[in-house]
Each structure stands twice: as structure tokens, then as C-alpha cells.
Amino acid sequence: MPIIAKMIIIIKGMDFFIIVYQVFTLFIYITENYAAYRRFIMASYAVFYIKSRKIEYTT
Description:
Blueprint: H1 2-11, H2 15-31, H3 34-58
Helix pairs in contact: 2-3
């Protein structure tokens, strides 16, 4: 559960990734594939980091 809470904080404010996260969470609850879940966390964090850096550069 702490991982899920951390995940929601990371993707907050990103509408597309919130939808993807909900679909992927449903998929995880069905399959319990935790390796794929960890890969998804790292990928979404990387995208969020790149987006935040882009915002810093543009402003």
C-alpha cells in the first residue's frame, strides 16, 4: 500500500497517466505481476521527472 500511495503522489496532475495508472492497477490486482508493477513505477517516475525538467526549462 505505501508503494501505491507514493505512486499517486508521483502521477498527480498528469491526467493521461492517472488513467493509465488506474488501468494498470486493475491489471496488477488481477495478475499480481509485481515485476511489471515495479517497471511501471520507474517508467512513470522517469516521465514525470522529464516533464518537470521541461517545465523548469520553459519558464
